[in-house]
């Protein structure tokens, strides 16, 4: 059987294109697998186990209707979502903190501030509330 040169070129061209697509697919698959591994490792650094001391001295997320609570492995960063606007979330949390002897330091922004107190396990914290769609992301850093 006789095969023309133009047919050979076509077959080689198609083979090269298929090879390129297969290579791109493999690279994409490996990258997605790496991303999934990174997400699993990142998730392992956070838990939903919040120290009772944090709940007593700072805030109990359940008491303010928090959703999806995350706690850093050291327990110094706590994040959660609230189904309200950031300014309302901040005012609610500020009132809660002040009732527990925290002193407010105005940052000039109505959704973030530093707080301090002279006694307790925690004596400094930063509260940041950010509007995200119909919810607020709250991040509290303590020391």
Structure description:
The chain has 143 residues and is of the alpha+beta class. 41% of the residues lie in helices and 28% in strands. It is built from three helices and seven strands, in the order αβαββαββββ. It has helices spanning 5-44, 52-57, 86-98, and strands at 46-47, 67-72, 77-82, 103-106, 112-116, 124-132, 135-142. It has a seven-stranded antiparallel β-sheet. The protein starts with a helix and ends with a strand.
Cα shape: elongated
| DSSP summary, beta strand count | 7
Label the structural class: alpha+beta
Biggest sheet strand line-up? 1-2-3-7-6-5-4
Radius of gyration: 26 Å
Please report the distance between the alpha carbons of the first and last residues: 81 Å
- What composes the largest sheet? 7 strands, antiparallel
Number of continuous helical runs: 3
Strand content: 25-35%
Oligomerization: single chain
Averaged pLDDT = 83
- State the helical fraction: 40-55%
Order of helices and strands: HEHEEHEEEE
Low-confidence stretches: none
Q: What key phrases describe this protein's structure?
A:
single chain, alpha+beta, 7 strands, 41% helix, 28% strand
List the helices and strands and how they pair.
Layout: H1 5-44, E1 46-47, H2 52-57, E2 67-72, E3 77-82, H3 86-98, E4 103-106, E5 112-116, E6 124-132, E7 135-142
Antiparallel strand pairs: 1-2, 2-3, 3-7, 4-5, 5-6, 6-7
